[in-house]
Amino acid sequence: MRFLLLSMLLGFGLVASVQAEEALAVTPQETLELVQEEGDQVLFIDVRDPVEIMFIGFTDAVDLNIPFRVVDRSRFNEEKAVFAMDINENFVAQVDVALAEKGLGRDALIITMCRSGSARGKPSADYLLERGFTNVKYVDHGFQGDSLKEGPHKGMRLQNGWQNSGMPWSTKANSEKIYRPQ
């Protein structure tokens, strides 16, 4: 009986160790420090759609804008009042190219950032981990941060995130870093 129980626990442990690791969050401050101190060993990617960047803002601290999901303006969800967003089919290849241009491999630290951290930041980081990248994190609360839950500015993204943490940003995107479809 002990042998059977030990075998089952060992089997479970082996299965658990094979499962994909989840990406961990880093704060905007930690991200900026990493980029400033170890920038040549880190790939920092803004994974938002470039049109979103145009309206919300950009930080030149990122290496590149490589969208994880791109807006499909031909498909509109009437119920949610939003356009469909599909995974960028070239995302992994574009990340590989960006790493190669910095002389880095898939074991280098990659940090992704979206608007809120949860819709594309973490999913894009997990997506890369599932595809063989080994050290991927995402910016907690993303570029714009969370919405206020009450008060006169309820619903506005005015807490945490890159913009609200005093990190450098601009209303203009760097034309050398912004994504353009091939």
* Overall 3D form: globular
Please name the CATH topology. Answer: Oxidized Rhodanese, domain 1
CATH class: Alpha Beta
Compressed to H and E, one letter per element, the order equals HEHEHEEEHEHEEEH
Strand order of the largest sheet: 1-7-6-2-3
Task: Give the helix tally.
Answer: 6
Number of spatially distinct domains: 1
Main sheet characteristics: 5 strands, parallel
Mean pLDDT value? 89
**What is the CATH-assigned architecture?**
3-Layer(aba) Sandwich
Number of strands: 9
Rg, alpha carbons: 19 Å
Helix content: 25-40%
Short key terms for the protein model shown above:
globular; 182 residues; two-stranded antiparallel sheet; Oxidized Rhodanese, domain 1; alpha/beta
How are the SSEs ordered, and which strands pair?
Layout lengths: L1 H17 L5 E3 L1 H11 L3 E5 L3 H7 L7 E2 L3 E9 L4 E6 L3 H11 L7 E5 L7 H10 L5 E4 L6 E2 L9 E3 L1 H4 L18
Parallel strand pairs: 1-7, 2-3, 2-6, 6-7
Antiparallel strand pairs: 4-5, 8-9
Concise account of the structure shown:
The chain has 6 helices and 9 strands.
What does this structure look like?
There is one protein chain. This protein has 182 residues and is an alpha/beta fold. It has a single domain, classed as 3-Layer(aba) Sandwich (Oxidized Rhodanese, domain 1). The protein has helices at 2-18, 28-38, 50-56, 91-101, 121-130, 161-164; strands at 24-26, 42-46, 64-65, 69-77, 82-87, 109-113, 136-139, 146-147, 157-159. The strands form three sheets. It has a five-stranded parallel β-sheet with strand order 1-7-6-2-3. It has a two-stranded antiparallel ribbon with strand order 4-5. Strands 8-9 form a two-stranded antiparallel sheet. It is globular. The model is unreliable at 1-19 (pLDDT under 50). Residues 38-155 form the Rhodanese domain. GO terms for molecular function: transferase activity.
